[in-house]
Amino acid sequence: MAITIDLVGRVVLVTGGRGGVGGGIVQAFRAAGAEVETAGRSASEPGDDGARHGAVHYSVVDVREPDSVGAWIADVLARRGRIDVVVNNAGGGPYADFAAASPRLYERVTALNFLGPAYVAHAAHAALDDACGVLLNITSISARRSSPGTAVYGAAKAALESLTTSLAVEWAPRIRVNAVSAGLVATPGAVGHYGDAEQTARVAATIPRGVFASPREIGDACVLLASPFASHITGAVLAVDGGGEWPAFLAHTPNARTDGGSRGA
């Protein structure tokens, strides 16, 4: 028997949903039949603010500004009448040596990766409570392992995972709150970050599954957690990382299997 997830009639908000991981999340919810509202900091096309692209409505919102977030939530409620799922996906940060970076950079990275999701959650709370809805926070493996060069980003994602588990208790039983911890994902930005195709393949070989996740695979995990199949899951941090990373010591252990394992999809 085939199992399908039907989210027809549900209104889903995705921050940072124009492309990359956010684009995969938007695709997955649309495939499940949901109506999607997404937002980004700037208009990438003329007239983007308040624009409809297919069945996805795009708004210009700076999640680092509470007033901008509040206006967005109010606008969605005025047009849609409800909000069922919120996905806090917007995030990121540049590579920067901690000792050389400025305090201003620390503030910007923390605002985007922690305060922004907190502002969105706060503004959407009443609507989610009315709908017995779902809040999903996209975090990173950087939250749970050392993150040299992106130390403040990793710390902010760790804080977001802590917020996830706390809100799951505060907002139970009407709102479920979970996080998706993404491993390495095959986005356009990843190609430049890890180097050419050969170098990227070497990085992929450090993942037990042997490949980067696709943005859609992150999106599919979000759809699962937003669906009735996850009705008793709250306060969880779901790792979508292909098994994490091969332990470094295995590279120096005789006969250890360190080739990255199967390359199957």
From TrEMBL:
Pfam families: adh_short_C2. It comes from the Bacteria. This is SDR family oxidoreductase. Keywords: Oxidoreductase. Coiled coil: none annotated. Gene3D superfamilies: NAD(P)-binding Rossmann-like Domain. InterPro entries: NAD(P)-bd_dom_sf, Sc_DH/Rdtase_CS, SDR_fam. Belongs to the short-chain dehydrogenases/reductases (SDR) family.
